[in-house]
Amino acid sequence: MAVRSTNSTAQARRLSANEIERGFFETAAAAAFVDLSASYLRLLRARGEGPPHYRLGRRVVYKRGDLTAWVEGFRVAS
Fold first, then answer.
1. Which of 30, 40, 75, 78 has its CA 20 to 30 A from that of 13?
2. Does residue 18 register a pLDDT over 90?
3. What tens digit of pLDDT does each residue of 45-60 get?
4. Which of 8, 33, 10 is nearest to 20 (CA)?
5. Which sign does the torsion angle of CA 58, 23, 63, 76 carry?
6. CA of 67: how far to CAs of 19, 33, 39, 50, in Å?
7. Angle at the Cα of 54 from the Cα atoms of 50 and 55, rounded to 5 degrees
8. Contact indicator for 31, 40 with CB cutoff of 8 Å
9. Would you say 29 and 16 are in contact if contact means Cβ atoms under 8 Å apart?
10. What is the reported pLDDT for 74?
């Protein structure tokens, strides 16, 4: 059983690294990218107020460009 969880953990790390290379982030990484907590980003997603996201089965990922555009939407010209 421990071997299986170790392999799953290693696989999760590889997938996360691959996603970053392709410009996609899982919720925790996306939250860090836009300087929010993961729980607040989840709340915004549930309310329909957060950045665009993609559902890949049970996983939620965010595209780097979508995160940047969402943040730019809060720009204030002064």
1. 40
2. no
3. 999 999 999 998 888 9
4. 33
5. positive
6. 14, 8, 16, 9
7. 115
8. yes
9. yes
10. 93
- The yes-or-no verdict on residue 26 having pLDDT over 80 is yes
Sole residue written with tokens 């996360």: 16
Beta-sheet pairing, 59-63 with 54-56: antiparallel
* Matching residue, tokens 């899982």: 26
Please give the full DSSP string across 30-63, using - where no structure is assigned: HHHHTT--HHHHHHHHHHT-S---EEETTEEEEE
Shortest CA distance to 53 belongs to which of 35, 31, 36, 73? Answer: 31
Average pLDDT for residues 5-23, to the nearest whole number? 54
pTM comes to 0.71
